[in-house]
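Sample pair:
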Amino acid sequence: MSLKFVRIAVALAAFASGAASAAINLPAYNVDTSNTTVSGLSSGGFMANQLGIAYSSLFKGVGVFAAGPYMCAGLSNYTACMYNASISSSALTNMQNRIDTWSGSQIDNKSNIAGQKVYLFVGTSDTTVGQNPVTALKTQYTNNGVSTANLEHVVRSGTSHTFPTDFDSTGNNSCGTAASPYISNCSYDGAKAVLTKFYGTLNARNNAPAASNFIEFNQSEFTTNAGMAATGWVYVPSSCASGTQCKVHVALHGCQQSTDKIGDKFVKNTGYARWADTNNIIVLFPQTKTDNTSRSTAASGSLANANACWDWIGWYGTAFAQKTGPQMTAIKAMVDRISSGSGSSGGGGGGTTTLAAPTGVATSNATTSTMKITWNAVSGASTYNIYRNNNKTNALGVSATTFTDIGLAAATSYSWTVRAADANGVEGATSAAATGTTASNTTTPPATCYTASNYAHTTAGRATQSGGYTYANGSGQNMGLWNTFTTTTLKMTGTNYYVIGTCP
């Protein structure tokens, strides 16, 4: 019996006995990787949008319940992205500039967005986010090439800031109530609607999915992020656990919906599992946790994450909306793990491979941020995939037998493995690991600071102005009014990249 099925058996036995089951390591399954999708509510909607844009080559469908456009809170105070705020065309242009600048590097090539299926939902009684930010998000997708046929925009009358269902479960609210657990009977099946948009007509749902198919897994092996819980949840239909090729959908809760806030209600009361059970869909439910530490954000000052929100405002670093953001990489790694089982491929027909594990994996040419990985060729391989600390690092298959991994931390040890893939993208066995340590920063070049009026900063090319306000190049930080009287010190931290600050 494989280790995967041993883990599953242990989990099922614990459930059957009525005992609290210890979290297991997330298993791998036979997955059609061409049909991976994501959806979420509120902060989970913002995160779903971030994942869909940053990993647009992976996520073929993006569902957003009550959330606004990509990088909205990265450039403005988060309140400008909520409370039915009107988001100007110039603000959308600034957000689009981030997508354009990062395309193909910090995020996947933006051309992938045009091929995505997009589902947007908002209620007319939603005063927490409201219709205007969702409309701005629709514009953002349209501006990136998503066709009318691929974009569904639902505005539901009398619906508050909540996840809509068409059934009652313990703790759920009426549709017009925006209160914990933020799940309501609105006579509208949100889970069905978003999954139908992605996958077409669905088989009838199972209103009583087996409790044993809900698996609590060890989330901490994927991240040490202070805003993410030690465990997450995944729903695995029996067919998928038995080896049937299945699809993966990521369902992201909103603020105040994590397991430390409402238990398993988002996992079990939203209806995702009911539809997944009869349609060969594995549903991943990653989890955040309360973080009461006050942290600097991108444009909203210093804030704690007391409501266990997903990071759409920059609590956990400036790369929060990019592929290297800590919560982004954690979720991507979970999806990669689920999708790494035998038979997984980019097609719908399954298949297996007997490709051998690459040999001779080695590291060399370390710098402070890069490492060269080399290996021996495998007979029958079309491409190779490289995994750093069990997380896939290459967006596209590598045809050579060498790869340079980038974006690493200085003076840090990493482990790499390599898998060969056939012409259908089906991977073979995993190589032995090779470790390597990046170089240390021996010198830190002095920073350069410029103190001048906001008008002078723009004329010197260190900042831009929009709507009467001044924004630092690179960071996009708001410097205040654009005039000759407001003085700001800008610190240059990279090529044409400035932050508000002082030099030591």
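The mean pLDDT is 90.
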